[in-house]
Design a protein that fits this description.
The protein is an alpha/beta fold and about 260 residues long. About 45% of the residues lie in helices and about 15% in strands.
Length: about 260
């Protein structure tokens, strides 16, 4: 599968892999790539069904995405690395660790989940159905973006919001792929086995996130008592964008602590 993944590989040093969420592609990580490439070998890619990678014209589970990611590491001759997973990407990291724990030196779960709570599930279902029934990605973005961004940031940072909305409204995005990936997220549930994972873990979450909510976050915390936890109390699902300086510093400090 790795030949079907579009990726970038920049910098040198200890490898750090960034995995994006359901609504994005590797470009969501560009500010973080620029930040970390001076000290690390940074790899970011488009999941199957996203960006410039192979479309997902059949149902895909998080196991499928984890397998393709591990194959990419094989292609790049990376035995082990730190992995930063955003939202859906955090589910992929968990499956990677379950399959091949020695490949992941540490996992950073940002705005992620052990499973969706009822509200998060409803929101993902709504966004999936908007893709099925809607007329355009622009329409989908207009209706969906308030789920991702806190009201304070939305009201006070309109220029930044519009920039993000332009990216989300890219009409080249494949609808069938999004629907299949959304169903994969809806079916993900690591609550029965997450507690067996011993990989060093940093959990970062938005206190106002309605998608990967504090309930979903607490399910991870309860099962990973060794994890370090940081809550962005006034932020939503896109807290990495809302508070980039704090987010980058937390990840940087974490990576330094692992050495």
């Amino acid at each position: 599968m790795n030949s079907k993944l579009h990726y970038i590989d920049v910098g040198s040093g200890e490898p750090v892999l960034f995995i994006h969420g359901l609504a994005g592609d590797h470009t969501a990580w560009m500010p973080y790539i620029e930040k970390f490439k001076n000290d690390y070998r940074v790899i970011a890619f488009d999941n199957l069904g996203a960006g410039r990678s192979f479309p997902a014209h059949k149902g895909l589970s998080m196991v499928d995405l984890a397998e393709s990611t591990l194959e990419l590491l094989d292609k790049l001759n990376i035995d082990a690395c730190h992995v930063v997973g955003r939202s859906m990407g955090g589910a992929v990291v968990q499956e990677m660790v379950r399959m091949q724990p020695k490949r992941v030196k540490s996992m950073i779960l940002t705005a992620s989940l052990a499973k969706l709570d009822p509200l998060g599930k409803r929101l993902i279902e709504n966004m999936r159905d908007l893709v099925l029934w809607g007329r355009s990605w622009e329409e989908w973005t207009r209706l969906s973006s308030p789920y991702f961004i806190s009201s304070k940031f939305f009201n006070e940072q309109q220029e930044q919001v519009m920039k993000v909305e332009r990216l989300l409204a890219d009409e080249s995005r494949d609808r069938e792929s999004y629907v299949n990936l959304a169903n994969g997220v809806l079916n993900f549930d690591s609550t029965s086995w997450l507690g067996s994972i011993k990989t060093p873990t940093l959990i970062m979450a938005g206190g106002l996130d309605p998608i990967c909510s504090m309930m979903s976050t607490q399910w991870m915390i309860d099962r990973l008592p060794h994890a370090k936890v940081s809550i962005f109390e006034e932020c939503s699902h896109f807290f990495l964008m809302e508070e980039p300086i704090k987010s980058m510093q937390l990840i940087q400090d974490w990576l330094r602590e692992q050495n």
